[in-house]
Amino acid sequence: MSDTGRQSLTDKATAALKPDSEKSTTEHFGDKLKGKSDSAASTLQPQSEKSTTQRVGDTFSSNSNNDQPSLTQKAKNAMGLGENNQ
Questions:
Q1: Number of domains in the chain
Q2: C-alpha to C-alpha distances, 52 to 19, 28, 55, 58, 72, nearest whole angstrom
Q3: Which residues form a coiled coil (predicted)?
Q4: pTM (2 d.p.)
Q5: Per-residue model confidence as pLDDT tens digits over 8-36
């Protein structure tokens, strides 16, 4: 379960596992918008108020806003399923 205002881990995983080549323009736009929104929410929400699940999800999705690709994105890039720049 995700914290209020945050993207669920299931939604993140579903978006990450679908190859970019199979996504429509709308899906690409939606993924970027949801990712930016979730990242902003992650930054604004104090660690002490995050659920354990959300903290783990933030770790794997690299929601620390330091312009580093997430572990999921790195894996997609390594398999040739994602963009190579992030």
A1: 1
A2: 28, 28, 5, 10, 19
A3: none
A4: 0.57
A5: 888 888 888 889 899 999 998 998 888 88
